[in-house]
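Give me the 3D structure for USP domain-containing protein.
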Amino acid sequence: MKLQGLINFGNVCYLNSVLQVLYSIEPLRNYLLNGEYKKDINKTNKMGHEGKYVDTMAEFFSTYSHGQPITNNLLNLLSNLFPFGEQHDSHETLIHLIDCMHEDVCHDGKSIIHDIFYGEVDSTIMCSHCIYQSKTNSNFNCLELDIPKRTSCYSDIDSASLMNDIIVGIKGFANNKLIGSDIYIYLPRVTTANQLYKLIASILHLEPTDISKIFITRNHLRREIFKNEIIRLTDAQVEIHSERKKLTMFSDKSMSIVDALKQYFKPEQMEEWKCEECHNIGGKKCLNFKTFPKYFIMSIKLFEMGYYGCIKKTDYLTFPDRFECQNIVSSFPPYTYEIVSVINHIGCSFFGHYYSYVKFQDKWYCCNDESVNEVSQSDIHQKEAYIVIYKQIN
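Predicted structure for USP domain-containing protein (394 residues):
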């Protein structure tokens, strides 16, 4: 048994990367290949599809294990939600397939699929004015993690420049070390000089009066902009000069999945929440694991809405080969998780490509559509990581 390449018929890399990951997960592979799932199909579950998803996945796994993987039936099954030939998201595809397989074989909310992929999170909101607590719990098969905000420091230079929406060349000192980072901001293409001063000042945590001059460079022609002037910024470089010697910037310390998980479980103030008991406003929300998944799927929120629509963030998260749950929240049990799969996204929000790294029979492979190559574990640590999957090993 070995990994197979998957043909990309046209924009189906999102599905190919997901299928390589799912096939590499041993308990799921065994469950589908040995036919055990058939006795579990629940055709009366209104949330299911009368076994169509689990049957089609089992059929694909069978063709895959015999060296001739066929994805046609899966593509047809997914065509309503993921029309063939269009750009789609691997994260949405992965959680959709897991959810649908679970619903096809679940009884009273339980299934082997659930045992493999799902965890449960308790949410408690504690009123700031009385002892009332509102508690809910929810199942999940993937946690979507925000990239934590970078820590701020100060620059020792008095100018910065922007080109194509990017502030470049800002360097500064933090903890006695010279550091630097690109700061990405999004400017309107047509604006006034006053609006530009206010916008840049707010991003750099300055007062508009702290900025002494702004220059525009286009086609090697550099000129100063003046009050109330209308500015067209397309393909222009913006140069900022400040009377202050220190501009606020962000450190380039890389953040990890563990940092994002700590942020996810950090208590959150709920300023607009209304207490059902005393009817006052305000509370604190706390999240806690009730059950931990055997295979822990996490996706990084790489995409957000910007001025011109959906954009891809330029920050990224690193991920360790292993992590301990107690390093996230000290009250968590001493579970250890080990990385087993990664799905990467390269490109931008409206056009890109997905490929995966999977651990299969104790070896790592890069699966990029038709190409499958053995790699070292160090090769899997790429900035393009979008989805990471860990296996509980104790």
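The chain has a mean pLDDT of 84. Let me know if you want a second pass.
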